[in-house]
Structures are given as C-alpha cells and as structure tokens.
Amino acid sequence: MIIINCGNIKNLPSMENLKFVSGKGGSDRIIKWVHFMENPGYIDWLKGGELILITGILLGKNVEALLDLITKLNNKNVAGLVINVGPYIQETPKEAKELSDSLGFPIFELPFEVKLIDFSQNICKAIFTSKIEKDSMDSFMRDIIFGDLTYNEEILSRAMFYGYDPGKEYCSLVVYIDNFTSVASLNGIWDEEIALRIKQQVEQIIIKIMSRYNKNTIHITQSNSIIIMLPVQEKDKKNNVDLIIEDIIKEVHIRLKELEISIGIGSYWKELNDFKKSVYKAQKALKILKINGSKNKICKYSDIGIYRLLFELEKVDEMKSLYEEILGRLIKYDKKNSTDLVNTLEVYINEDCNLIRSSEELFIHKNTLKYRIKRIEAILSCNLKNLEQILNFSIAFKIGKFLS
C-alpha cells in the first residue's frame, strides 16, 4: 500500500512530464485531493492536503502575487502547487523557488500542452486505489485482532494477499501517540482534519522506515495507535527490531517535532493465530510505561516482569487487600502526620537500598534517611535488610501503580 505524497507522484502513470522544481523538503506532504484553483480568493475554502493546479491566468507575471499565494497555501497545509507553465507563467520565478525551499512547500511544473483534467484524474485514481487498499487492510486487521476468527485457508490466503509470509517469524508493535488529543486540537477544539493528517504522517514515516530495512509491513491505524505486524530475521532479530524502533522514534522527532510517541513490543510469533496475543502483550507493555510515568519511550513485554502476573490476575479486591496489608499502616501514618515515608520507602527500594543514591534522589541528608528508615521499620514492624520483606514492599508498590 502506497500513501500518495509529493515525493512519489512522479512514479504514477503518465507523470513523465511533471517536474519537481523546488520545496523538496516537503516531499513527504500527503496529497488528499487535486484541486484546480486560479482565484486566490478561494483559499479559505481549502481544508489542507490538496494539490493545487494553476495556469496563472489571473496572476500573470505578478511575482509578488505568486509569493503571497504560496505563503497562504502553505499556511493552509496544502500539499503543493503545480504550475501549468506556458503563456501565463513561462517558468517558476527564482523568488518563488527560494520561498518554496525555505518553507518546504513543493512546487511542480507541468507543460501547458498536458491536459490538467488527465493529470488530475491519474492522481485522484491513485488516491482512491490507495484508500481502498488501506480500508481493506484495516478491515482485515481488525477482524484478526478484535474479532473471533476461525483460522482457515481462506483467512491465510487473505493475509498472504496483504503481504503475510507464513514462512517468516514476526513481532507485533503498537506505536502509540501520547499527546494525540492536544496536538489534534485547534484552539482547544478537536479537529478531525488535523487528526487524520497526523495519523497519515506517522503511518508514512513507518512505511518509509520499513522500506529502508526492506520490510513489507502489514499495519492498521486504530484510534491513536498504529499496530504493526513486523517480519523479523531469525539471525540477530533483537538488534534488528531495536534499530527499526529507534529509527521510527527518531524520524517522528525530526519530522513531527510536536508529537510524542511510545512503542510497545509484543512477543515473537510464527503462527497467524498468535498475532492477536502478541498485540495484546504490546499494549500491556505500553500500559506499564504509563503506569510508571516512564521517560523511556520503548517497552518490551518480555521486560515487564511481575506486571505480567498482575495482568493475569482477575481478583482486583485481593490485590487491593494485599496492598493495604503491606503498606496500609505507613499510608495512614503519612496522612495523619503529613510525612513522606511511603515515597521514601519506594525510592529506597528502587535504588537497591543504597543510602547514598537514595538520599540524593530524595534531596535529603544521609542521616535523615537513616532516621526515616528506622521510623518505617518501627511503623511496619519490619526489617529493611530482609530481602523477602523488601520483595513484598516492591510488589506492593507495583500493585498500587497497577490498580491506579
């Protein structure tokens, strides 16, 4: 599946006469539609993502008017501008090219003898085809992940049609846009056009990275996540997956600076009916990132430790009871005396019971920490040199985060 953008339209049929003259920094701008527009007064009607065609019949040789048009089109998040060079605009002015390059706003030239209707039809046809393929793939992926399919030859054939290779091993990734709601809002109001554009841009980056590693990926956009079925090589598969994930995060940071993404990594699998389980594991890994407020943007299900057991426990009341039994007295003491002993204990355990590191993390003197530890031991009737008791406290803190 190909997302049609300014960088790849020259690969479409009958585009040999199209010339990309400037603004190549915006070659990844996605084309949602093609629109013929001579009158700049219609700019306010644009929604973003359009490829604008002009002959220049109203602009003529007025360079300032052309520069103003480029600026306004860029501000409307238009994909690019195609100038039908000929009697009205013989070539793109130098000033227009310089502005286009500075904005990363693509400008193309098309000979006047090429019929604009044929040109626009070819691109619109490609956009329609891409959308149909995307919708079809999304529908199939939803059936696999959220449905209750019986895996038979027909399902396997459909998966192979979209690129699944039953002879390969796979890993499931879930790319989650952390600040999707805030970025997809305009003046605090949700904007569907912005939301769609963000998801398409992230999707495009993923396809680009996968292509760089010669990976044919099957994926689906679901809410503010993109779920990926990633083929991996048996040889050095861990490093291979890590490199791909790091490149995705790096590319998103470069291209879409305002976006923050996290990536959950599920288990490796070979049978198609294990894909669903692997996706759920990747989603659980993402939840752990959120639970711990981690600054790390990558989490593997294989690394979440005791949380794997907590996800499988259905008795929430039992977990609450255990949490209260282990930490309840200390929580009540903090509330009554306005102290911070619960946090002190958690930091002390997280720092492997190292006094120096713990006191630095808490911004207190080492002797103050020693006093607090004695107070905690007295309140909880425990010995913080006992490894079994420390393990119980560690599990209790994890239960607390999990339940919250």
Brief overview, please?
The chain is of the alpha/beta class and 404 residues long. The chain has helices at 63-75, 94-103, 116-146, 153-161, 180-183, 192-212, 237-255, 275-291, 307-312, 316-337, 341-350, 355-362, 366-380, 387-403, and strands spanning 19-22, 33-36, 50-54, 80-85, 107-111, 169-177, 185-186, 189-190, 218-222, 225-232, 261-269, 298-300.
Backbone structural class: alpha/beta
Major sheet characteristics: 5 strands, mixed
In helices, the fraction of residues equals 40-55%
Strand content range: 15-25%
Q: List SSEs in N-to-C order.
A: EEEHEHEHHEHEEHEEHEHEHHHHHH
Low-confidence stretches: none
Provide the residue-averaged pLDDT: 87
Amino- and carboxy-terminal Cα gap? 40 Å
Form type = elongated
The total strand number stands at 12
Give Rg in angstroms: 28 Å
Q: With helices defined by DSSP (H or I, 4 residues minimum), what is the helix count? A: 14
> How are the strands of the largest sheet arranged?
1-5-4-3-2
Question: Could you characterize the architecture of this molecule?
Answer:
The protein is α/β, with parallel strands linked by helices. It has helices spanning 63-75, 94-103, 116-146, 153-161, 180-183, 192-212, 237-255, 275-291, 307-312, 316-337, 341-350, 355-362, 366-380, 387-403, and strands at 19-22, 33-36, 50-54, 80-85, 107-111, 169-177, 185-186, 189-190, 218-222, 225-232, 261-269, 298-300. The protein has a five-stranded mixed β-sheet, with helices on both faces. Helix 6 (192-212) packs across helix 7, helix 11 (341-350) packs across helix 12 and helix 11 packs across helix 13. It is elongated. The mean pLDDT is 87.
